Amino acid sequence: MAIWNHLTHAAVAFREFIAPTYRPERHYMRGPGPACARRSNTLQARVTFH
How much is the pTM? Predict the structure, then answer.
């Protein structure tokens, strides 16, 4: 089974080398994430208390 896994991995790597399957929707950020929202909320809270 280990040989089959190596052969499959090599075939997939070779195919990706010849014809890469880049899909932009997998890498596209659709807006600010939750960390940005937390930062903006804490900044607004600091401004209102001062």
Answer: 0.43
